[in-house]
Design goal:
Blueprint lengths: L5 E5 L20 E2 L2 E2 H11 L4 E6 L4 H8 L7 E6 L5 H8 L8 E5 L2 E4 L3 H10 L3 E6 L8 E3 L2 E4 L9 E8 L15 H10 L4 E5 L4 E4 L3 H11 L10 E4 H4 L2 H11 L11 H6 L28 E4 L7 E6 L17 E6 L9 H11 L6 E5 L4 E5 L6 H4 L5 H29 L9 H17 L6 H19 L3 E4 L8 E4 L2 E4 L6 E4 H9 L8 H12 L5 H26 L12 H14 L3 H12 L3
Parallel strand pairs: 1-4, 1-6, 4-5, 8-12
Antiparallel strand pairs: 2-3, 6-11, 7-13, 8-11, 9-10, 14-15, 15-16, 16-17, 17-19, 18-19, 20-23, 21-22
Helix pairs in contact: 3-5, 12-16, 13-14, 13-17, 14-17, 15-17, 16-17, 17-18, 18-19
Length: 616
């Protein structure tokens, strides 16, 4: 069939779940990676061959009207219709009966979509339905029951159903099933039509992407989920504070960094209580009822930088003071901040604050802890910038690299020698130490995600590797033990001036000190030359009371650590926005081969050679 010439974009919603972002800016005009969502929708329709587009408006129509007036897509004839009262999806079609006189696309303006229209067009051609609705089984509430390509129920709470994505190819024959006046929904009209024997097709489109932008959390997640598709993989992005931080989190910041009473210049309490602002609605409980007194127009929502995701079930945000426009509030914060929202899904996340205090007292350089709200799972630490040892290494001279690594080895020696006695005195809760169970867990992690899932090796070959790994665990169990960082790599070393500072130490525990050395010296992110590895290993061993034993265990530690790292890269690279981790797999495999020259394990070496030669 000929692609539809017309499309109707539903943009009249109130955006209540996204307030205060949508108080002045309608949801379709919120940017996704710097471009309004409405612009992305129009670009998609233009690619589909649409010629005429109608957009309905209600809340804050000005920004949309001004944008459409710029004629951003000359190949499209754009028209807007204002609804003084919201009519619902069905009422909107009734109100636009002059436009919907032939088959047309109908879609919501508040979703992110990347979909091939061909399957919907084929369903329309083959089944001759009243409508063909795009469905997904990968996200959303999953309340649509679809059988053999026909939707039977839009609101079936049973599990394993589909989600209606808000895009459909619709026939004008739907109009008699819409209520003659007032508010009505299209789903209600579909049900009336189904009751009279009309078919509504449900179409799944392989390889498509859909995300609903209904809440601030979904708005942030949509950026992450679309990063790779839109060419922004691994990038950070900036959003208004209200899109990133909850009102409670914003109030915690105010309480911690604004101890002074509210200035008499501020608006009356009654006015503050009614307004939504940088810091959200007034909060009850122990937090003071602080709110930015200015309207969103005169006080733009302070920008928060959303940092790229990491593998620790934590969200990281930067509050860059220089960019803040609300001088009455954020300008009074005493220093730049990194904000951390952590999840209890990772047990070690709850240890971060206390470990920070412990390590600082021990003389180990760590970020300054500025706010700790364990009940809210929210932290603030000093902003050390974006520079890590990983990012610095390509720009350093060999002498500078050796100097930094020697400083890090001095930090490691302090942690390894003084850490456990100090932790016992402080009765510090740690993650379970390295034992047979933890060694086996790391082996299974590598086997499941690399050997089985990535390489699809036969079980006989996997069993041979598992047998070899058991000898590695035995060697490490008999080696010198201490308090170890557990993830002592270049990406977890930042700088305060020229001095290195450790991060991501919440998983520290008792274990073989050689494991930390292998994490640092065999780090795939750094990929140090073999000669430098040996020089640094000797430097450490000469200063440790059991240095010879540590050095002897180093190849086994490198094998153990690199197996764990390979498993992590395989897992993380499958997550949205984290695909770049796959590029480290060949480097890690080459480092593994280097360790296997000192401790030969033939079955594992065969795997490492295959990984080293394969593309990421």
């Amino acid at each position: 069939m000929r692609p539809p010439r017309k499309a109707f974009i539903l943009a009249a919603g109130l955006g209540t779940r996204l307030r205060p972002l949508t108080l002045e800016t309608p949801k379709p005009m919120l940017p996704l990676w710097g471009e309004p969502m409405l612009a992305r929708t129009l670009a998609m329709l233009a690619r589909w061959g649409v010629e005429q587009v109608l957009v309905n408006l209600h809340h804050a129509p000005g920004p949309i009207v001004r944008y459409l007036a710029t004629q951003p897509f000359p190949q499209l004839r754009l028209t807007a219709v204002f609804e003084p009262e919201i009519l619902g999806t069905g009422g909107a079609i009734r109100n636009a009966r002059w436009f919907v006189d032939e088959p047309f696309w109908l879609l919501n303006a508040d979703v992110v979509a990347d979909v091939d229209p061909a399957p919907l067009l084929r369903a329309w051609q083959n089944q001759k339905p009243l409508a063909a609705c795009w469905l997904t089984a990968d996200a959303g509430p999953k309340t649509v029951r679809c059988e053999n390509g026909i939707i039977r129920d839009f609101h079936d709470p049973a599990p394993d159903h589909a989600t209606f994505c808000g895009l459909q190819l619709l026939d004008p024959r739907i109009r008699p099933f819409i209520a003659p006046a007032g508010f009505d929904t299209l789903i209600a009209a579909y049900r009336r039509a189904q009751a009279q024997g009309h078919r509504i097709a449900g179409v799944f489109v392989p390889g498509s992407f859909w995300a609903d932008i209904g809440t601030p959390a979904q708005y942030v997640q949509a950026h992450r989920d679309t990063a790779r598709r839109l060419g922004h993989a691994g990038e950070r992005f900036t959003l208004p504070a209200a899109a990133v931080l909850t009102p409670r989190e914003q109030a915690l910041l105010v309480k911690s960094f604004l101890p002074l009473p509210i200035s008499p210049r501020r608006s009356p309490a009654s006015d503050i209580g009614r307004r939504t602002s940088d810091f959200g609605p007034r909060t009850s409980g122990p937090l003071p009822p602080v709110s930015c007194p200015l309207s969103p127009v005169s006080c733009p929502l302070s920008p928060v930088e959303v940092l790229p995701p990491r593998g620790s079930n934590r969200d990281f945000f930067r509050l860059p003071l220089a960019a803040n426009n609300c001088t009455d509030v954020y300008k009074q914060l005493s220093r730049p901040l990194i904000l951390i929202r952590w999840s209890p899904e990772r047990a070690d996340n709850r240890f971060y604050a206390r470990h920070t205090r412990f390590l600082a007292a021990l003389g180990v350089p760590v970020p300054r802890l500025l706010l700790d709200a364990p009940r809210d799972r929210f932290l603030a630490i000093e902003d050390l910038g974006s520079d890590t040892l990983e990012t610095r290494l390509p720009h350093l001279k060999p002498t500078e690299i050796r100097k930094i690594y020697r400083r890090l080895l001095a930090v490691a020696l302090r942690l390894h020698r003084a850490g456990l006695p100090a932790a016992r005195r402080a009765r510090l809760t740690l993650m379970p130490g390295f034992d047979a169970k933890l060694f086996a867990w790391e082996h299974e992690y590598f086997i499941d995600h690399v050997l089985r899932a990535r390489l699809r090796l036969p079980e006989k070959q996997i069993a041979a590797v598992a047998t070899e790994l058991a000898t590695v665990a035995a060697a490490l169990s008999a080696s010198p033990q201490g308090l170890i960082h557990r993830d002592f790599q270049s990406s977890n070393v930042m700088f305060r001036g020229a001095a290195p500072v450790l991060i991501d130490y919440q998983g520290m525990r008792r274990g073989p000190v050689a494991y930390d050395l292998a994490s640092l010296l065999c780090d795939p992110y750094a990929d140090l030359p073999a000669a430098l590895q040996q020089v640094l290993l000797r430097h450490y061993a000469a200063r440790h009371p059991q240095g010879a034993a540590v050095a002897a265990a180093f190849p086994a530690a490198a094998i153990q650590r690199l197996g764990q790292a390979l498993g992590a890269y395989a897992v993380l690279s499958q997550k949205p926005g984290m695909e770049s981790f796959a590029r480290h797999i060949p480097t890690a495999a080459r480092q593994l081969l280097r360790a296997l020259r000192a401790l030969p394990l033939p079955a594992l070496a065969a795997v490492a050679r295959r990984l080293a030669q394969s593309p990421p």
